Amino acid sequence: MRARRFSAWFMWGSLALFGILLPLAIGQDPENRIFVDILRGLGCLGFIGGLVSLIRSSGDSAPGVIAGEAHDAVPRTLCNNPLGAYGSASLSERIDMALEASNFYDRSLGVIYYDVASYGRIARSHGATAADQALGFVLAMLQLVLRKTDRAELIGKGRFAICLPLLPDEETLHSVRKRAAKAMDKMRFEAIGAEKLEYDYGVAIYPIHGKTGAELIAHAKQNCEAARSRRLQSDISQRQPVAMTAQPRAA
User: Fold this and answer.
1) I need a surface site. Which of 87, 172, 199, 221 has the fewest CB within 10 A?
2) Is the whole model's pTM more than 0.90, yes or no?
């Protein structure tokens, strides 16, 4: 399987290289403009296809075991990212690659970082495996509402990030975020009494909040933690009893 995906990555990479180098060789002759535009489109398609193949192959090479549990008990998301492959290092590297494509086509890139508080409730009541499966379901459903170039990946227990390359503007990032929020608000799990998922998120966009994958992830995570702190503070304030004002006695 890995050899097959490597062959696919090589094929897409060759197409991308063909679509980049050949237009340079042809030059900017107006008579060849349509042909050059077609070649550049093929190059873009090849780059995106190669990036997807690379992500899938890296997902297969990662270990798929959580805390000593059996490998076949670990579910996979639609983006072929094993739930056991925690850590944002590989994700930051893939974001760096997506940044190269975004820069080449004069586009931006966004990262949305999520911390799902409901993960902990499910883990405490039904175990870590059930919580991982629930989060895997969340990512699978989100992948259906994202753009074809977007990818949702787990980066920790109860935490995941969405990478949005080739953004035409910041408005598109927030439009995708709203679609993701709408989808998550419709999800219900019996493990938490069929209530809405409780989560916090943070957003980062290139180059305003960072120029590398690691910087963008760190900024989005920082914003997410700030949002979580505000939510918890609000919950504490709402639970505190309102002090009653003492009424003066009648003379």
Assistant:
1) 87
2) no
